Hints:
Elements: H1 2-14, H2 22-65, H3 73-83, H4 90-93, E1 94-101, E2 136-145, H5 153-157, E3 166-175
Antiparallel strand pairs: 1-2, 2-3
Amino acid sequence: MTRNLLNSARHFWQNEDGATQVVPFALWMPVFVATILSGIELSAVTVRHTALERALDETVRDVRLGTGTIYDHNSLKTSICERAAILPDCMNTLQLEMVKLDMRAWTDPPADVKCVDQGSTVAPVVDFEYGRDNELMYLRACYEFEPVAPTSYFSEAMVTDANGYSAIVSTSAFVQEPL
């Protein structure tokens, strides 16, 4: 039995039939690896964005229902982060912006999104206005994250800051109901 195993191993090492397949393998392998890494990155971004959207929608639903709870910036942020448990370090990387919109003299919400700068120790100042009865409020949540595979084609196509962090932005609007 040992002799058969040694003969098989010797035959395997002396066989040169696969030598012609090395070049196509070497050329195509990086394409397949890049596709797999981009797929992993795309799925990670999709899961994070879905979690943020759902958590923001559920939190805004609680605010709209007017359960008697007075929400402030920290309680909204805590509620979103608790509902989006899949987002790592959510309390430090989530930035909320809430502005009042006038339905009668309409102007678009601010287009520039202010996210947390991971390189600085102080969070940027953003607008956070509390609404009065029957006012339309626009809430925007921006979550910064580090890409899973930063060298993939998909990650290179995403907008990143100076520290390599990308952002996911979710928005919601609601009318402040009277108490």
